[in-house]
Amino acid sequence: MTHHDTRLLAAAQGALLGTLVGDCLGGPFEGAPATTVPKAHQRIERTLAQRPLPYSDDTQLAVALALHVLENPDVEPARFAEHILREFEPHRGYGAGMRRLIEEWRQGTPPTEAATAVFPEGSFGNGAAMRVAPLGVRWAGAPERLEEAVVRSAELTHAHPVGRDGALAQARAVALATSRGRFGVDELAVIADGATTAEVGAGVSDATTLLLDWSGDQTAAVATAGRRLGTEVVAHRSVPTALWAAVAGGSVDGTLACALALGGDTDTIAAMAVAVRGAADGADALPEEWVAACEGADRVREIGRRIAEAAG
Ligand code: AR6
Ligand code: MG
């Protein structure tokens, strides 16, 4: 394998397994109040003892998107809906809007029409962002094709401009982490510049400001970031937060601890943050004990390999 192929494989498996690990380890603390970083590390240890850790809709949808992208690299929304239905299991903790949307599809509403059947302007939940890592890797080398594919993937379920823009920001983060092998404030600046909505743009800019003004300890920084950037299930109050954690954490360990310490939508913020950190640092940076504790790790690792092969 060339150096390029090796790097791509590490980033692809890092991004996909990062999604899985963040989802599985963050899941037990969904809705929890904010806590300190040392307590978050203790939580990780306690959670690992409860293995196997089930994944939720975050991973299920990322797998559905990855399998779709392997067949339709530029994303075909109606066929992507078929892939979602094939993977769908109702007990995975889907968002309320997503559950109703999937019901619409099952009752025969064409997927392209159903996106505004639940929320008239479309959903601005973080669901289109949390699953987007496979696209970020697949099109890491082609920003324009990435943007087009992400928009098509998002509009199926998250037609609201903010839901779509959150997906774009997260996809660009994974793409930059993949192509540059690093993720820091320079990459955040690129993402803030590329935002197409004021909400997501302001969130990513605020995340950058918080990182540049950093003073004091990590726990204080986490508390401030949670308040300023948000920890809710809506895209503009969770994607910038996850990108902040991916930089503030400094490592895979640190990123997961920051994401859990933030509280709120911990599984999804952790899934997004660790996906970015995993793409930058590579799959080997994910502790093997964490990966082995997660349901479906072998399947996700293999899907990551296939995405890397397609992207190479
Ligand atoms: N108007 C009002 N509320 C909205 C709107 C809107 N246009 N859009 C979203 N919401 P959903 P997701 C609120 O259902 O994005 C799981 O726990 C509304 O409360 O489209 O896939 C995952 O782990 C809606 O139910 O699903 C993620 O944390 C919620 O945002 C999360 O759910 C989520 O939007 C992903 O959810
Ligand atoms: Mg969640």
Question: Could you provide a short overview of the structure?
Answer:
The protein has 312 residues and is an all-alpha fold. It is 69% helix and 0% strand. It has helices at residues 3-26, 37-48, 57-71, 77-87, 96-106, 111-114, 127-130, 133-138, 143-155, 161-180, 185-194, 198-212, 218-229, 239-248, 252-262, 266-281, 288-293, 297-311.
**Spatial shape:** globular
Amino- and carboxy-terminal Cα gap: 11 Å
Which ligands are bound? ligand AR6, magnesium ion
Alpha carbon gyration radius: 17 Å
How many helices in DSSP terms? Answer: 18
Helix content range: 55-70%
Report the portion of residues in β strands.
under 5%
Alpha-beta content class:
mainly alpha
- What do the pLDDT scores average to? 97
Note poorly predicted spans: none
Order of helices and strands: HHHHHHHHHHHHHHHHHH
**Biggest sheet features:** none
Total count of strands? 0
Question: Helices, strands, pairings?
Answer:
Elements: H1 3-26, H2 37-48, H3 57-71, H4 77-87, H5 96-106, H6 111-114, H7 127-130, H8 133-138, H9 143-155, H10 161-180, H11 185-194, H12 198-212, H13 218-229, H14 239-248, H15 252-262, H16 266-281, H17 288-293, H18 297-311
Question: Can you put this structure into words, describing what you see?
Answer:
This protein is mainly α and 312 residues long. The protein has 18 helices and no strands. Helix 14 packs across helix 16. The chain is globular. The termini are close together. The site of magnesium ion has 4 residues, from helix 16. Ligand AR6 binds next to helix 3, helix 5, helix 7 and helix 16.
